[in-house]
Amino acid sequence: xxxxxxxxxxxxxxxxxxxxxxxxxxxxxxxxxxxxxxxxxxxxxxxxxxxxxxxxxxxxxxxxxxxxxxxxxxxxxxxxxxxxxxxxxxxxxxxxxxxxxxxxxxxxxxxxxxxxxxxxxxxxxxxxxxxxxxxxxxxxxxxxxxxxxxxxxxxxxxxxxxxxxxxxxxxxxxxxxxxxxxxxxxxxx
Length: 189
Prior knowledge:
mainly alpha; 84% helix; extended
């Protein structure tokens, strides 16, 4: 059973949306691309998928903010974090929207930026407002890319079956070529 058939199955559909929610907290980029693919192929309701993606992204932001906020109780850890990141505090405080948007596109930096906002005890209302804007901007950008690739996949789907034959033919040609070249080299030796 392929992914589209699985997602279209009414018995599994609630689990698909739950997986999307948790996927947004664990690996948002891959989850978003998979969701866009499923929406393009008609397996998911676009509005419901969008809602789950946004809620999952906001939950991720809250969880990591919360981790940073409560990291202050661990004196040794927070002193190390502050030693490494204090020089960036002004940028976080003066340009929070820019930091949240840019960090969303940089793998590995996003969650650490969310934690840093928590350690700075950045006002939660402003944090969620900027975080929501970052999610929407990221969603439009990455979602558009995912849509383009998904639409291309749908068009190229009929040709992909032949693409599996190409590596097989190359392997056969290589094996025959190796056989004849080694046979010719043995004669010369």
